[in-house]
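Action item from last week, closing it out:
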Amino acid sequence: MSAEAAGSEQSEQAGAGAYGAGPPADGGGGGLERINPPHLAPPTGFSHAVRAAPGTLVFLAGQTALDGSGKIVGDGIVEQFERALTNLLEVAAAAGAGPSDLAKLTVFAVDVADYRRNARELGRVWKRLVGGDFPAMAVIGATRLWDETALVEIEGIAVVRER
């Protein structure tokens, strides 16, 4: 499929308007509108922008693959990403936010090339834990993280609306 066709298909799936704006495909999202302009390259695993209806902002601190005893678990980026994302989702839930309330995430990776090599598997982890809603996202290379054995850290912003 061409990039143009993929972009058109993705815009239609997202409930595209003139700029690819529309409600999330599942009708949820806590008032978040994913915006993916059709004239930009189609996003893969993220949204170009997310517009939030009025609600409560929840700022989610960076989470790594720490277990309950404060030790990093997981030998590779995929295992650590899964644990870090699970930790982030648990913090979000404690603040009243679900996966579809995630508006913005930043992933810090100590080896961006390794992150890219494992993108498909990381995407499967995302789909299993979060589903098909993609926040505005960035991956940033970091020399090292707070815990020297951490390979990835995820921070975010959620918007919680009264339900």
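Closing note: The longest strand covers residues 152-160.
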